[in-house]
Amino acid sequence: MSDVQAFAIDVAYAFGIKPKEIHELMSRELDIEEQITNIFWADAKMRIDYAHFGDVFSFDTTFGTNKEFRPLAVFIGFNHHREMVIIGAALLYDETAELFKWLFESFLNAHGGRNPKSIFTDQDFAIAKALAKSTQLSESLNGDLKDYMKSDLNMDDFFEHFEMVVRQKRDKELEAEYNAREKLPPLCLKNSPLLKQASHVYTPTIFKLFQNECDYASTTIIKEWNCSQPVHEYTVVPLEKVGEYKVLCSPISRTISCSCRKFETFGILCCHALKVFDILDINIIPDAYILKRWTREAKNGYVIDSIGKDVHGDVNLKVTQRYRRLCPKLVRLASRAAEIEEAYALVEGVTKELEKQVEDIAMKFSSVSLDKSKDQMSLGGSEIMDRGEPIKNLVEKVKGLKKKEGRKGQKRCKSWVEQQSRRKKKTSTKDTVRQQLSNVCS
């Protein structure tokens, strides 16, 4: 057994392996003949990932799907290792405004009504530049889908194969999490307090990016400065690049902002801000500039659903975790108390009272029905179910999937933005050739 496999067993299914009794939230929309027109689903792991990493995500409907020729809509985000996480998916009948309204209502309902900060989509040319990374995510996922899925799959096989893709992504996260816990990344400047702090706080992937910014900071100079006000103003200039950046910093409150807006858009301090911190002898990253979503502790904490209950990827794992937290504390307490008669008597008496209280809580808990498989909520003309059974079983409980004729094939359809970008490149090439011919003729 490898170290990675041992680690996977140790944390059970915390980082992505599907538990035996997974609770999947699924929303489906039926027509008057009780045939499914649209399906949205997000399992417990997707909901947990959204709670931790749902501040920014990509929404793409350009994937090839199955023999029903339906658009597959996928909500894709980044985890703290900068790897792809799937936080929701849907099979759609068409792509109308009314349908997208239903889809986003279902999505928000599944994730407890928490709104994201930003959504990248493939429909707006104005965000084409920001979409570049989103498009890479979509292309990457589409490549993985093609490895597992064919255009002639029926619905049961489609769901089974899609889950294989999701599990593959989660296994990669598991391995990255193991590597992050087992070793610290190498430091370029071993005695730098800033880098030492960052290496312990950030995941290895994010630390490398931060360390690059520290390196770039050494290639910048302070061109101008004004320290006459509580908030100092600096003009930072790269030595080997064109341009200058305005940095505002309050040494007292240790707040800083840069005109490049790297922290606001990506979440780590830029080289210009780090240059100013260096001249002010600020040798640690202020807490305000450490985003939890990029740290090793990004997935710590509880996730609450729309009705106020904890969402767990695996209920049995939580029992194991609680046991592991309590056991060492109680063993140390018993060991210490056994050394002194008075302390022993105190613990003995308190233990009896605690046992009674715990039993009372256990009896009260067992009398309340927590069968989530019977929970149902209404959302417009759709049903939303939180069940402990596979999605394909839920699909089978209705009369079928409404047939749809549409685009065929498993290739990913290019979005309007991507098509426009390709046309521009072709036009640019033609113009270049014409210019070269003109120069030759002249």
UniProtKB/TrEMBL annotation:
Location in or out of the cell: Nucleus
Bias-annotated ranges (Basic residues): 400-414
Keyword Metal-binding: yes
Location of the region described as Disordered in the Swiss-Prot/TrEMBL record: 399-442
MF term (GO), any: zinc ion binding
Domain of life: Eukaryota
PROSITE patterns per the UniProt record, alphabetical: ZF_SWIM
SMART domains: ZnF_PMZ
Any one Gene Ontology cellular component term annotated for this protein: nucleus
Pfam families per record: MULE, SWIM
Keyword field: Metal-binding, Nucleus, Zinc, Zinc-finger
Protein name per Swiss-Prot or TrEMBL: Protein FAR1-RELATED SEQUENCE
Native source organism of the sequence: Quercus rubra (Northern red oak)
